[in-house]
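Forwarding these from the shared drive since the link keeps breaking.
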Amino acid sequence: MNLSDIQDLLAQAGVTPEGYNVVMQGDVTEIITMTAGSRREIIDEIAGVAEFDAKKADALEELETVQERVDEAELRVEEKQERLEQLSEERETALEYQELREEKAEYEGYLKAAELEDKREEFAATRENVEDRETELEELRRELDERRGRVTRLEEDLTDLDAEIERKGEDEQIELKREIEAVKGEITRLEDRIAAEEETVEDAESERREAFVQVDRKQENIEELEAEIRNVKVEKSSLKADVVEKQEELASVEAEIEAVDTEYEAVRDELEAKREAVQTARDERNELQREQDRLLDESRRRSKEEREKQEEIEAAEAELPELDTDLEDLERELRKAEANRENIDEVVADLRDEKRALKDDLGGVEDELSAKQQEYAELEAKAGESGDNSYGRAVTTVLNAGFDGVHGTVGQLGGVDPEYATACETAAGGRLANVVVDDDGVGGRCIDHLKSRNAGRATFLPMTVTLDGDLVEKSGAMTGGSKSGSRYSFTKSGKGQLERVAERITELEAEKQSIREDLRDVEERLDDARDRQSDAAEQVREIETDIDAVEEKRGDVEARVDRLEEDLADIEAEREEVADEMASVESDIDAKTVEIEELEADIEELETELQDSDIPELTSEAERVREEIADLEDRMDDLDGDLNELELEKGYAEDAIEELHDDIETAQNRKAEAEGTIAELEAEVADREADLEKKEAAVEELEDELADLKAERETLRTELDDAEHARDEQAEAVADVEADLESLRDDVDRLEWEIDELEAQVGDYDPEAVPDHDDVEAEIDRLEEEMAALEPVNMLAIEEYDDVEADLEELRDRRATLVEEADGIRERIDAYEARKRETFTEAYEAINEQFEEIFARLSGGTGELVLDDPEEPFEGGLTMRAQPEDKPVQRLEAMSGGEKSLTALAFIFAIQRHNPAPFYALDEVDAFLDAANAEMVGDMVEELAGEAQFVVVSHRSALLERSERAIGVTMQEDNVSAVTGIDLSAEGVVADD
């Protein structure tokens, strides 16, 4: 066991190096050398005045906060008063303006009566015109529906035909490619799942290892808890023994009390009853003071809630204008979004028309291309019979493509004398059409070009040879392209008919490709426009939703304001109830204070009567022992609670270990399942790869079925154009009538609204009672001039004046409440200061009394503790004034070293007597004492040891001779320390070695 272990063990019993039951040699020196202020702070600490300082500091902080609110309330009252004076004049002007406006409205009613009759006649004529146009519109719409039906039927037929053509041409290929991509995607997803399952295996293994680590930690925790449980049980047993010892001591003191002369029994019983009554009254007063503090806190909380509710109401009311502004902004955004949606709708319609036109152009090019391909086949067949010397389509396509690195055919690059031409042509045959290129890279690009154009096959001769003349590839030639073959002929002349047809086919192929690219571009733009159309519609819906949300929020804010105002009224009523309760409690506290003062006066008389007996001291001793027993029992209860908590924590740790074992098993199962899933997924990947190979083979089989459907499509297009033209003409006629009708209906709605407005404004009237029109206008002009002279007018001042007046009255009430609260806090601060002074005085007087007695015993003289400023004890320090036997009175600074130590020890023993403990440790406190003084200190310690245990470190015989047990440490010859213990209470026998 080391020093820190001993300190921890002693701390559990309330024994610490900083306490006054442990006195080191340096502590005695420190008391001698410390300042008077520091010495007085020792009394502060023992008396516990820090608690009152903390309460006073909190109250001062609270007072500062309340005072700030009082100042704020004063400022707001002044602001409201100034505003009320300003509104008074504006209110008078507004009331005068309001009277003039009402008189003007009366005269304006005369003008509207004649206007009402004119509107009624115009309304009847417009209604008749609307009925005529509705009949005409019904007939036009009937005919339009018939024409639209024909257009729809033709469009459906054309759409079906286009779909068939597209399906035959590209859709099946696209579908197969889409299926191929889907299979590839499925393979990728399966591989991702395999990777995920592998991560699951790793995670499960990691969780299993982590669970094993947690099990080890929990087991260590259980072992630590078991050690703590054993320590608590040992401490509890020790406390039980202390309780038994104290109970025996209490029985002894009570027996001494009973042995005292019975003539003081009646006085003692009365004194005990009075003391119990005083304690009961003090407890009741303390309870009332706690209730007073609670009610004060409740009052402050209610005031705070009242302010918060008022602030919430103001904040909520401030939200309404912002919400109105947001609503207006959203309505503007809605109009913009609707206009944007209409524009995008027009763009979508234009792109659809453009797509339809491009499809028509593509159909025309495909028809011409088909015809040219047929013509080329016929010319190529004739070339075999007539000896046409034009190059085939594949060679012409490559030569016209303009590739870098293509130099021409063998026939174009070679040359012979005319007399040898026939023989060379016969010998070379089709090789004269082979194309000479730089290298196999150029040849590969040419072959890819022929495949993309479906232009046949050709042979390419790369010029990549080594310095030795060897070709890079053994064959030296490259043959490739599309699957259809061609015949090649040798010629030295210009282009023939076959070559020209091949060039036209190439041009048509390029034009077809360009149109398809344009069509894809239009389709992409159309898709993008449709996406934007969907986004625009979604934006409109979102704005409409936002408008609904803002309107709903505005309703919620208004409802919240009503609810907060109701809560505010409830809080104000509760605050008034708390104020009434506080007044009642303060009255009860005053009554209890009077009762306590009367009881204390009675106790003082009884104590005077008993001052010659031992009863007060014995009673005090018995009370002290009872308090110590109660403290020990409280500590035992605390240990029981600690023991229960430790047992519970240990149970939790054991349950956690069981759960961790379950987690380990679960992780192992997850790992096994994941490994099985990985094996299944790998087999499924193999199946998908086999399916992918089949679909890629099927893509190469779809290319030849498009000619017969195009003629029928052209006929349908012509019929559709005629039908659309007739439909559009009829639609224009309908739109014209609808526009006229819509305008007439707007006029009807407008007139009907204007008539309703005029009727509401005019009401019942007698046409003959209406004044002359000129007189009415003259009166209106006069009233407008008078109103203009008053402008600008603040009409809101009428209502605002009443609101400000009500707010001013409420602020005055709130200010009065805050002032009252501040006065209450000041009274509480004064009470804390008085209680602090009272507590300090009691502790100081008790310790001084003990100091006087102990110093007299130790030195044979007199001594006392003197405050520098008794009227304001906390402003000065504490001085120890002493007069050793046969010496003059002197302060601590003027004494000798031994006298200083003796005085300091008297001060320490006085503190220990005032605040006793069951255990004391003194470390060489007699170091600076002479032999006589050491003997007196030894007697003092020996006497005190009858009531408490003393452990003393000393080299002086005065203390060693009076000890019951002594422990010595000596150094042996081998530099090993030896500890020897002696039991001096027996016959000086060595206890252990």
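-- next protein --
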Amino acid sequence: MTMLLTSLLLFGLTSGASFDKSGPVLHWKLDEGQVTVARDSSGHGFDGVIGAAWVTSSVGNVLRLDGTPGSTVSVELPLKSRLGHGSWSVSAWVKPKQFAIDSRQNQRRLFAYGLYPESEFNVDLLSDGRPSFYQCYRHGGRDQAFYAEAPTSLALDRWAFLAVVSDRNSGSMEIFINGVLRSKGPLPKDVDPDLNVSGLFTTGSGWQNYMGDVAEVQLFSRAESPAEIKAEFAQIKGRFGVVPTQQELISDAIQSAQDDLDGADKAWAAHGDTASARSLAKVVANAGAPPAYRSYAELRLAQGDLRTGDRSKARATYARIAANPTYPAIHREEAAEQIRELDRTGKGLPPRDPNASKIVPSHLPSVRQRFFVSPAGNDANPGTKQRPIATLAAARDRVRAAVSAHKKGTIEVELAPGEYKLVQSVTFTARDTGTAESPVVYRAEKPGTTTFYGGARLTGFNPVTDPAILGRLPTESRGKVVQLDLRARGITDFGKLAVRGFGQAPSPPTLELYIDGKPQTLARWPNTGFVTPAKLVEPGNNSTDSPSVLAYQGDRPARWLHAEDPWLFGYFQYLWADGTVQVAKIDPDAKTFTTAHPYHYGAPGMTDEQGIKFYAFNLLEEIDIPGEWYLDRNTGILYLYPPANFAHSTVEISMLTTPMVTAEHLNHVRFEGLKFDLGRSDGLDLTDCRDCQMVGCTVKRMALNGVCVHGGSRDSLISCDISDTGRRATEIIGGDRAALTPGGHVVANCLIHDFGRIDRTYTPGIQLEGVGNHVVHNVFYNCPSSAMRIEGNDHVIEYNEVHHVLLESDDQGSMELFGNPTYRGVVFRYNYYHDLGTGAQEKLVAGQAGIRLDDAISGVLIYGNVFVRAANGVFGGVQINSGRDNVIDNNVFVDSARAISGGYYAGNGVWAQLAGAARPPDFIVNDLYRRRYPEMKLLLTEPAVNHVWRNVFYRIGQDLSRSQSSFDVIGNGFFPSLNPGFVDPGHRDFRLNPKRPFALPGFQPIPFSEIGLYRDPWRSHLK
């Protein structure tokens, strides 16, 4: 009651007075002692009601808040003195006694203003002492909020001057500690909170109350400038005995360096490189600044010397950068590359060697023995040109005998054009291995004309005449569907449908139907996309085998009551985890599906938290458009709604149920120019092989994976085409994480597309695992989920183009790592990500990103990449879920709502797991890792940041979607509409225009024209 009376009295006293906004709205010195009203020294009369206790300290009387709801100071400002729609500032001297609190939201509230959730701002101290700012408001019936936090912590039992500024004119949120800017984040563009809704201002709040001493509280209805805040701190810091901490000294050095960089930018914009050099030299000389600031400044100095024509001075500066072990490795590498370019141009050569990043197959010694294979041959023949062998298996056996002779020179098997039917795997073992001096080559006589085939061609289709079948067909397809008795043609292995998908049992070999080379659709409803259930009736429970029950919408499923084996494919819990379930019962009265077994992944059964979506398949009753088919596994009859011009079409089914080629402990063997086509399983599986190569090969139409390389070392896929796989295009696994021994596997100049057709999530173009493997100059496109998934350390992924991926799955990156902060040293360099994701076509709970570092992935380098329309949902082109120590340097982000999203978050479960005693075995933290990755010495210490340097944000809505306090930000450029200097961004040419200066000083040109495929003897055309 006292508070209310006081507030009303204050309103009456001041409602008619004019209000001066230049000074503070209120200023509580809080030095009176033993009174219940905090006197306002601003002259406005906004005295506060005190519920806290007074204490006498070394600085005199101060107010002590004890962490209870009533321990506050508060006042209700009259309407004309409230903060309205403008800027504001709040500050105080604080001496915290405790940060943590026993609550899920582990933070204590220092200031609150307004009314939640209509319009309020808060200043809190997090459990680690870092100040944070939060503002919420209601607009158009929706709750809006934004947030910022500082990377610098306050200390317990130590006075500090804290100021928070919301500057509507500059569009920024700022947090100052002891007069120094510690955090600056962007205000959302459309932010418009009305702080006139309520004028209640509280120090201490009634929610998770601040615990500690407080003095000198000020509230402004404008944005105080950094100079004003610094002056306020300097004026009174002697009274509070402030001595800067080491962290504050570092922050001060950073601020000094940033001020000098800002001065260099202004001088460069006005007068060019020479004018900016003095400020940059001050940054280099600032011994307290982090090395990245100094290396960035030196790189700019060298770049300026090049522009002014002093090549000798530039080279010396680059040499100094390259030799400085304290500088970031990427800046030292960039300097070394610039030296190489200067040396090349000094010899009259182009600056860059266009072949430097291209991978060529290993050199082969001269041929010492050759065998010939032909579809018209005979395995009893000796394998000469005149009397060739007929099969790959027989050729292998001939090679086996030749290898045992232990002579030098290449052993070559030349395969004539034609089709080689495979009915079982061709198996290679250590008995078939070559050596560096005597490698073995299986080579097509004419590349691309030799095909190993695992299918069967079908002819003799007839119209359906059985009245019972016609009655089950939809009206629109009756009289158009044809049938074929497979058993009558000797085909009796139909495979089986089984539960499959992410988190389910391994997928079985799968029969597929192709017409004119294209996969046809196992009859489904709806014909495209998904439907949503009317209701999740029963989630199901795997532990009790209780089925899942879904209520469906509409009456269409009532037609399926005689279906022998109906199935549902969909997303039954998470929109990133696909799966199938068999339908045991359709109830047309209740309009429900009951599954044969419960869906199981994660939770015991289905959940609709993210929104279930599905389609039904394997239904004769749904053959209603050309290309749909159904196989009755009881009768062996195949039903098909044929496409137009069917009389001239080639119809095929896959037959081979094992991998086409398996190899184990095989060394120095090359497959060159061969095709592997149409199987129910994998294409080629190589296990523990070394120095084996696939060069210029094609692997396509496999129902499972294309090429699997498991273990071994230095195996290569070069200039291959891999497509139309039901699961992954490739699996490349090599290297020892425990010892950080590289695998050395390479995937180069490969065209990888149309993968993940059947199992649609976590089935990428390349599943890359282990240590030290290289993925370079490839093109990926057309898949429902990721182009690559990466696990392990020290992989290099560069010069790749990725487009039209993530066409279905939510919460994914086109290239993604997950869940292990000891996966370090991975490099993404010079890749082009564009036109990714579903856009607005599908509901996204989370988002889709070009590169995603999921669940605490740390220590990754993302350098020189181009992201164009490479973000959807709430994700940016790069999305960081709670990781730290990642470097995002010298990249280009174009035409997306967000460029970089997320950031470090200490509350992620991976960090808690890593800090505990029960670490998973793949979390490796030992001396070897600490030496290789020095930042791991501070793995669980804070502050934890990610580094965002020299990036170009062009036509981007938001550069960083989290407060910049969780990022180390240097030298970035934000260009809402002005082309910063690309040749022709409208036509996807992101080379730098040599005729105009680039608008971001320090940015290093990206070799954009070198990205993607290149011509070589096995790839004459670039697709």
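The first helix runs from residue 2 to 14. Residues 1-18 have pLDDT under 50 and may be disordered.

- D.
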